[in-house]
Amino acid sequence: MNELTAGQIREAADYISARMKEKPEVGLIMGSGLGILGDYINDAVTIAYRDIPHFPVSTVEGHAGELMIGTFAGRPVVLMRGRFHMYEGYGPELTSFPVRVMKAIGVNKLVVTNAAGGINTGYEPGNLMLISDHINLTGRSPLVGPNDSQLGLRFPDMSEAYSRRLRELARQTADKQGFSLREGVYIGVLGPSYETPAEIRMMRIMGADAVGMSTVAEVIAARHSGIEVLGISCISNMAAGILDQPLSHDEVMETTERVKSKFLGLIQGVVPLL
Ligand code: HPA
Questions:
Q1: What's the mean pLDDT when you consider all of the chain?
Q2: Which residue minimizes the CA distance to atom 2 of ligand 1?
Q3: Catalytic residue flag (residue 134)
Q4: Domain count, the chain
Q5: Cα 184–Cα 110–Cα 116 angle in degrees, nearest 5
Q6: Nearest atom of ligand 1 to the alpha carbon of 115
Q7: Residue 65's pLDDT band (boundaries 50, 70, 90)?
Q8: Of 57, 104, 138, 194, which has the fewest Cβ atoms less than 10 A away?
Q9: pLDDT greater than 60 at residue 68
């Protein structure tokens, strides 16, 4: 059992709070290859995940494994450099534990990013997609088990999981920077194998535009905690069966590397507005 208690969240939050200089308002969770944002945090206090009580440690290539608390684009933020995935063997509660801890140290807005496969055939690798909504196809939820009413409601509303207001701010920012964002539905899967072409056809019929192995558990926990969410996917590859070529993690990393400055500019532009 992975069940995490309010006490464990408190212990992790106290450990971090004792070391940070300023209370962060915005949480940032960066996906594969997008940890570069850490280089732009000023006056950062960096804390390795392994030093934080009850924190899991990430194992996937391209994810660093540290929390940075400092100022980004003029705002006090906390950045997760590297995140946890259910395919690593963590339950949904542990995967989203950092979101609970962020809330406990003062965060009320969260920017989540990820690399995702494009299901919408109008998309191209390198596109940035504003997540308008998600489909949780993992079959798991961080809210299963007894509900702690100090953390949130038993049956939280998910009708605006990805804030309309924050999406508008992201659109305006991209506009000002001279590019447009795609906007679509992210479907979250367990992984770690990529999907089959038949699964991708099914997901397209279900209304998904992009697929990935992260984000949904974190966003469910964030909404349960009352945190407002902005989600952005980097379309790192076309999903299985669309192009006549196999998928690889190398392709995912190459694409995120290629668009990282555009991506960084977008985050830098939008964070002060949140
Ligand atoms: N499928 C699932 N997860 C992903 C993909 C994909 O095609 N690309 C990046 N993450």
A1: 93
A2: 212
A3: no
A4: 1
A5: 35
A6: 9
A7: confident
A8: 57
A9: yes
State how beta strands 42-48 and 26-30 pair: unpaired
C-alpha 117 – ligand 1 centre gap (Å)? 4
- pLDDT of 19 over the 80 cut: yes
CA of 121 to the centre of ligand 1 (A): 15
Domain at 229, CATH number: 3.40.50.1580
Question: Do 82 and 34 form a contact (C-beta atoms < 8 A)?
Answer: no
Catalytic residue, from 20, 30, 115, 239: name it: 115
pLDDT of residue 33: 72
Residue 54 annotated in active site: no
Cα(217) to centroid(ligand 1), Å: 16
pLDDT at 1: 36
**Pairing relation of β-strands 66-72 and 42-48?**
antiparallel
32 is catalytic: yes
Q: Which atom of ligand 1 is nearest to the CA of 237?
A: 8
Q: Which residue has the tokens 């949780």?
A: 136
Local confidence band at 161 (pLDDT 50, 70, 90 cut-offs): very high
Nearest to 78 by CA among 50, 51, 104: 104
Q: What residues make up the domain containing 242? A: 3-273
